[in-house]
Amino acid sequence: MTLMDVLVDFARTGRIGPLRCGMALSEAENLLGPGQPHPAIRLLGPDTDGYPYFWNGLQLEVTRHAVSGISIRLSPGSAADLPSLVLPESQSFEAGVVREELLTALDTAGCEHHLNDRLTFDRQSSILTRPAGVCAVFTLPGRGSRVLHQDRHYLSVMHKHAA
Predict the structure, then answer these.
(1) 34 partner at 20 to 30 Å CA-CA among 10, 110, 144, 149?
(2) pLDDT digit string (tens) for 24-64?
(3) What is the DSSP secondary structure assignment for residue 11, as one 8-state letter?
């Protein structure tokens, strides 16, 4: 399995392996191990809603002790940093996913996608997939990023939120 396989499957299904919106946080932690809670959760307590738990580049937003959002965050120019449940040996995968490469992979997989006008402006662009409703946001690399093409948009985050 490659990083692109994980991204395309997420875009098509709205799931990352067994992880899905609506599952209990305790179930996700049984699969992933304990997550790193957002500082607001540590400050205000475990019943604080709307803040994420982190597993490096994987983020699960939690509301009422259930997963209400899933995000994969990538940093172009470095290795992917995802839990082994999501992508075994993720450190061996380059996190620089060029927009055109992901769109081609989605087309090949038969995953419908459309421009997301709400998040397309300035130095970023975005798409929404159908029917899963996954949003992918692409940005131009920052100065000093170690990427091959400084003038191309790279995936920075893919996310889904429960309806």
Answers:
(1) 10
(2) 999 999 999 988 887 777 777 777 777 788 999 999 999 99
(3) H
Six-digit token pair at 80? 């992917």
Distance CA 81, CA 92 (A): 9
Contacts of 104 (CB under 8 A, 6+ apart): none
Write down the pTM of the prediction. Answer: 0.91
Contact 72, 57 (CB under 8 A): yes
CA 112 vs CA 27, 56, 68, 104, 129: distances in Å = 30, 29, 23, 11, 6
Query: Which amino acid is present at 44?
Result: L
DSSP 118: G
3-state secondary structure of 13: helix
Give pLDDT tens digits for 55-76: 999 999 999 989 999 999 998 8
- Using the CB atoms, write b or e for 120-153: b if 16+ within 10 Å: eeeeebbbbbeebebbbbbbbbeeeeebeeeebb
